[in-house]
Amino acid sequence: MEKSKNFGNVSVKLLCSVALLTIVGCVPLGVQNDGLNETYSELVNQRSSCFEQSAEGSQFFPASDWLANLKNEEKQLVVSYLSQYAFNKCLEPQVKHFEQELAKESPSVQRFIKEQVAMFPYIAQKPDGIDEEQLHNIEINITMPFIASEVYESLK
Prior knowledge:
The chain has helices at about 1-25, 35-55, 65-70, 70-100, 105-115, 130-140, 150-155. The chain is mainly alpha-helical. The chain has one domain. Helix 1 packs antiparallel against helix 2, helix 2 packs antiparallel against helix 4 (about 70-100) and helix 4 packs antiparallel against helix 7.
């Protein structure tokens, strides 16, 4: 079972790495930005680290009476959003570092990489009709990524 869990992750990493190396490999010798390759590898490693952290993150999810008292459908939407938010927050410093290195590349390389390589794997969109202040109070207290289904089950 463990092989199938990691296989998809490895395939995505390999595909992204091949795409990046192909692009960076198209830059003339002597102009190639080794910093971009290095920071991309660090970004891939950080993604893996964030996934690993999420296995234990549910234990550290901040308590919220507001969230616990939402209707089940709203609760699912909020927990799902917060899970995506937490994962992106975990990646954010490394993404910024990669984007700084990417800015040193030509506009065509920048455009291609931005189109082909998702910096953040999740697009966290706040649910409609939810109390923004209460949501923000939870966001600022999230310390690590977590598995949404585990948190949702703990709130039932």
